[in-house]
Amino acid sequence: MADVFSRRKRSQVMAAIRSADTKPEMAVRRAVHAMGLRFRLHVPSLPGRPDIVIRKLSTAIQVKGCFWHGHRCLKGRVPGVNRGYWLGKIAGNRSRDKRNERRLRSMGWSVKSVWECRVRRSSAAELAEHLRALVERSRARAAWPGGRRAATRRRSARRVTGR
Q1: SS3 111
Q2: 111 contacts 148 by C-beta, under 8 angstroms
Q3: Is residue 103 a contact partner of residue 24, using CB atoms and an 8 Å limit?
Q4: For residue 5, what pLDDT is reported?
Q5: Is 41 helix (H, G, I), strand (E, B) or coil?
Q6: Residue 88 φ/ψ, nearest 5 degrees
Q7: DSSP per-residue letters across 57-107
Q8: How far is residue 62 from each of residues 19, 41, 113, measured CA to CA in Å?
Q9: Contacts of 2 (CB under 8 A, 6+ apart)
């Protein structure tokens, strides 16, 4: 099946797709801010430039688009046109996501993912409750003696010194 748009129009459509400040991301930001948490956006010094970074809790929140990150929901379906390209593209995105999450965790960060479909189908109150549960788990982890970062530093020091 041929594309319904011309090459020029398809290029315009694809160029209009944003990677930051999307509607789902903005909804998550509003909910996190309403919980009284302060955060940084798209921190370039962290692997994958997480969408929301709560330094106080050593937590990074990624708001993932279902299509682009291969979620198993209706929005995550692969198009029938040029299927081989899209399967490779989405597989590459998923492997990059895993690599970045591993790197963040090795640096002592807790990584949470929120899917676009979850944000869109939830009311503001439901989204706030979901995020509150994610953040409470991060708070509990941060309450360990010395927090997660200190434990990671101790493990790294043991590897270097052999103790």
Answers
A1: strand
A2: no
A3: no
A4: 82
A5: strand
A6: -65, -40
A7: GTEEEEEE-TTTTT-SSGGGPPPSTTHHHHHHHHHHHHHHHHHHHHHHHHT
A8: 12, 10, 5
A9: 81
Q: Which pLDDT does position 158 carry in this prediction?
A: 47
In this prediction, residue 10 carries a pLDDT of 79
Superfamily per CATH, domain 7-161: VSR Endonuclease (3.40.960.10)
| Block residue for tokens 């360990």 | 144
Measure the CA–CA gap between 119 and 89, rounded to whole angstroms.
Answer: 24
Q: How many other C-beta atoms lie within 10 A of the C-beta of residue 138? A: 22
Q: Decide if 62 contacts 94 (C-beta within 8 A).
A: no
Q: Which two tokens stand for residue 146?
A: 């010395």
DSSP code of 146?
Answer: T
Q: State in Å, rounded, how far the first CA of the chain is from the last one.
A: 62
Domain locations in the chain as residue ranges = 7-161
